[in-house]
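sorry for the late reply, my laptop died twice this morning and i had to redo everyting from scratch. anyway the thing you sent over, i finally got around to it. pasting the sequence first so we're on the same page, its 249 residues, then the predicted structure underneath. double check i copied it right bc i was rushing
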Amino acid sequence: MKAEQQNRFSERLLALLDHVEYRRVESGEDMEDVARIRFKAYKMADILPLSGTTLIDDIDFDSHAYVFGIYFEERLISTVRVHHVTPQHRVSSSGSIFGAEINGFLDAGMSLIDPVRLAADPEILKEMPAIPYLTLRVATMASEHFDVDRCLSLVKPQHAAFYKRVFDADTIVSPQKNCGAYKIDLTLLAARVREIRPWLYTRFPFFDSEPFERRMMFGDSLETQHTPLTILPTARLALTTQSRSRSQA
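ok and here's the structure:
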């Protein structure tokens, strides 16, 4: 993508972010909304089965799992579940499928972010193809907040090129057939988040965020909230802060 096209694309994403809210999902009612989005997305993608624990499972409530709803103009458009995986806490969806590779990272002392269950409302996705970027911003924030070594991508093989292009992700497991409960083909990639972060935020400034946004997204203070906390993106503020810092340097 040429520089001029890249700048226009980034500005469009920043403009969309002006209408986005993130909400951490912890209540049963909001989990039902997440299940509906997952159902729509999985049905469109012909991923079966579509009932019972395939839509909401025990791992959604793991102590290191963070489920988010992404709202555009107050309408739920997508969802993602992020796992903070450490050598001491190894629960993750990717680990349940490619355990040897994930344990290899963890046995080496690494920590990981495992973003899974990314699902978008198919009808809105047709009108707003940028939804994956808006949703995966949660993973970039988690990677920085928890200061992990790698961010994983457990995806269909046809989606691998996107993660390589956007996140410079490395292939960890080549495409495998009939993986996991869904019996679909999957591949595993991993991004070297600390190494790519300066480049990523320069190229895609909408992924950036301020520390206080990340604390609201992943901090323990949410445990005291009786209603879901709505979090507004801070990418524009982060971009302004960086520009001011460069001008004062």
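The chain has one domain: 3-248.
thats about all i looked at so far, will dig more tmrw
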